[in-house]
Known about the structure:
Elements: H1 7-10, H2 14-28, H3 31-39, H4 55-77, E1 83-85, H5 89-100, H6 105-125, H7 127-131, H8 137-158, E2 162-165, E3 169-172, H9 178-195, H10 201-215, H11 238-241, H12 249-276, E4 280-281, E5 284-285, H13 288-305, E6 310-312, H14 316-321, H15 327-339, H16 352-367, H17 378-394, H18 397-415, H19 423-439
Antiparallel strand pairs: 1-6, 2-3, 4-5
Helix pairs in contact: 2-15, 3-4, 4-13, 4-15, 5-12, 6-12, 6-13, 8-16, 8-17, 8-18, 9-10, 9-16, 10-16, 17-18, 18-19
Amino acid sequence: MKKYFQFERLGTNYKTEIIAGLTTFLSMAYILFVNPSTLALDGVADFPDELRINKDAVFVATALAAAYGSIFMGVYAKYPLALAPGMGLNAFFAYTVVLGMGIPWETALAGVFVSGLIFIVLSVSGIREKIINVIPNELKLAVGAGIGLFISFIGLKNAGIVVSNPATFVALSDLKDPNTLLAIFGLFVTIVLMVRKVNAAIFIGMVITAIAGMIFSLIDIPDKVVGAIPSIAPTFGAALAHLGDVFTPQLIGVILTFFIVDFFDATGTLVAVANQAGLVKNNKLERVGKALMADATAVSVGAILGTSSTTSYVESTAGVAAGGRSGFTAVVTGICFLLALFFAPLLGVVTPAVTAPALIIVGVLMASSVGSIDWKEFEIAVPSFFTLITMPLTYSIATGIAVGFIFYPITMIVKGRAKEVHPIMHGLFFVFLAYFLFLRD
């Protein structure tokens, strides 16, 4: 095994790789509880229960998808890169597709599955490695930052910190609700841990918040910590059963958005982790084709299991910082996700007040990319700004992407920089324009 994972060449060993894998797992373990809460729309009180996805099944699907993606990435591509259902992608799935568009979660899972198939085709053909250069870097950055603002807004809403107001649309609550105060406490705890650069700060913050909630009787104390693995039957295979429902103009737009967001998220994370791990030689990533294939297959596998898009996690850099250099790091992380299946009883203590701080902090991390946008060039600033601001204000990631992609060709052409706009960007302009004019309900 040492020879297969090239321990000697990479200057690593079992102890270092195991510690790195555990570090990565703890850094991203929060997704085990945040993802079921998000997909089940826990913070939406008036959503019919019969239309919600089963939280226990999503918990199992999340753990299995993360285990599959991480282990496959480690064994096949030999990258110290872990995967799990992505933040932002799950918010788009739940709040835009299911809640906003009224699309059943089963059909939405079918859309995720199809987007994964597109990823696989592009990865096999090598097109995925080239297509990243088509869309301008500023729009990529704006999409990531906009999703960060959107996720933070959801967190503030779920915490009860931001509430609706008939005069101003939104407003600050009176902050007297005990659960809101618990969320604020959790937010401060997580911020302190993040500032102190504590590994697994978000996960630890959730644990401390849940414990505080139980101490003050805001959260019921679970009967047990370890229990039987819940059934995955409510979600398993639903994507395949509803494949015939995705071939509508509305769903095609959804699939396109799943594809675009995951494409940038996964590729950017892959490059970041590869650079940190020293896997970039002569400006080229080692075994990049295999890494992209592992990431692509995880999307479709996760959809079959019953979760939104599975993607590469930037938290993998925590494991790399701890010394992880080989694929064995990702394998250890995947095994940890399998063991986590036995901790399903803890789902009951993960209330919206517990997950809200995690959503807000993840939003902060994602929004940091806004600083890399060149705001001095107005033709760049306009589409970037509208991408950023439209996502939280319309409660839709898809709308933000569409608006930004419509404005970009216009501002560039007016500026006299039409030659810098790739033909595909012109094509997307008409696609999204048609979406707004004819296809959007």
